[in-house]
Amino acid sequence: MTSSDFVTSAIAGIIDSAQGQVLICVPERQIAETLATGLPRDTACVHSGLTATAMRTVYRGVLDGSVRIVVGTRIALFL
Predict the structure, then answer these.
(1) What distance in Å separates the CA atoms of residue 29 and residue 48, rounded to the nearest whole number?
(2) Taking 90 as the threshold, does the pLDDT of residue 76 lie above it?
(3) Do the beta carbons of residue 40 and residue 16 sit within 8 Å?
(4) Which pLDDT belongs to residue 50?
(5) Count of CB atoms within 10 A of residue 75's CB?
(6) CB 21 within 8 A of CB 69
(7) Can you tell me the distance from the alpha carbon of 32 to that of 29, in angstroms, rounded to the nearest whole number?
(8) CB–CB of 27/73 below 8 Å?
C-alpha cells in the first residue's frame, strides 16, 4: 500500500463516519492534484494557480457543504 492509498482510505473512513469536512495540506501543487484525483467527487484542489473565480467557487462549496474534502497547498488554510 502506497502512502497515497493509505491517506485516501483514511480520508474515506473519516468522511463515511462523520458529517464533517477534511482539509489536507500538502507541500506541492502536483501532490495536491494527484491526491485529489483519487478522492470522491466532493473534493476540491486548492493552489496558487487557481483564478479568483475558481477560488470563490471552492469557498462557496466549503460553506454550503458540497465540498467535503479540500486538498491543497498552504493557501488552502485561508479558505
Answers:
(1) 8
(2) yes
(3) no
(4) 95
(5) 15
(6) yes
(7) 5
(8) yes
Reported as a single tens digit per residue, the pLDDT across 8-50 is 777 777 777 767 788 999 999 999 998 888 888 889 999 999 9
CB 35 within 8 A of CB 70: no
Gap between the Cα atoms of 56 and 6, Å rounded: 30
Quote the CA–CA distance of 51 and 53 in Å, as a whole number: 5
Q: What global pTM score does this model have?
A: 0.83
User: What's the alpha-carbon Rg for the chain, to the nearest Å?
Assistant: 12
Torsions phi, psi for 2 (to 5 deg): -80, 170
Instruction: Decide if 23 contacts 70 (C-beta within 8 A).
Output: yes
